[in-house]
Amino acid sequence: MTNNVLLESLSVRKELQPSETFNTQDEYVLGYSSVTFNIIATKAICFRVYAGRHTDANPPVIVKKTLKPNTIYSRTIGVVANYVYITIENESGTETPFVTLDSQGQYIRAPNSLVRQHVEVDATNNINLTKQGSVYHLDLSRGLLQNQEPVDIYGTASGMGSNLNTLWEDTTKTVFDGLSIGVSCQIQSDNINDTLGGSGGVCVKVVGLKSDFSKAEETVQMNGLTPVPLTTEFLRVNQAVVTNAGTGLTNKGNIEINPIYDTSLILERIAALRGKSATFHYSVPKNEELVVTNIEMNTAIQDPAEFDLTVQDVLNPGVSGAPILKKSLKFGGITNGAVNIDVQEKFTMGQTITLDITSKATPLGINSVYATCNGARINTIL
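Request: output the structure for the sequence above.
Response:
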């Protein structure tokens, strides 16, 4: 029996050595009508898709594209053969480009897939559909895992600074994820209308973690320019949302949550008129795992940009800030572009993920960036 696996499980993250040619060396059987390849390279490379097996003599090339540095290439092909394989060739004899390749679309079949579905008939002649050796991330994407809930992590920015900062509304400041214990916090707006009886935000729900990493949330009534203390001592703030507003229907000013001991530190922020924080960071609570399958980025960029997905570990500070994807995701020159980055990583209690961004051009241009995380929180206590 030939096994089935989703095509989007095909993913490549690799630094090519000078003059190296990478070969998938797998025999993928196209099962349906089309497949889309998205590839990013930091230096010049040549991307080829062959109709045939990698062991065939002179299989025809159905896609050949030479990519310039820091560009995204997306190509959709129809089924033209039972098998396809891919090569990525470094065009330089001295440089070492980093390549990210993801595929999306219909189904393929791979001989070494772990997914099996069987129909069994028991002693009472009941027909049962069972799975053996199921692929974890495929079950997750289908919503089949017990105790899983969707996770809401996204960030947006209308500009980029010259320093590598978490993707959020403020390009001149950095969101602070460095507390080692829960501390007393406050919430404050820079607009007098964010208060009871005002036209702006009236109530804000704050969601985060306490010192023991257990989840905590608190809804507080705003008081305009006057700071309002929170009753919860927060270790991290994952999200803030306006839950009640006046005639303006949302917050009028910028709302910040700060530690009382140092109000220059920002734990979370809701930009004026936004109604919800848009900061790409998330700390994993106690008794949960965060499983990230992919990150979707939409950009309107005039300047070259650099993106880093990183993880900080409160329980293991020796690896704090270690890159998860090993290399920066560098791309630029995109106008209203979109890219889907396959991640498939699992994070545990005490770890904080952030998506960081910086402009690599001088002077800085006008940029707009949006990213959202696809995945789920898994409750590990059944």
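The chain is about 0% helix and 50% strand.
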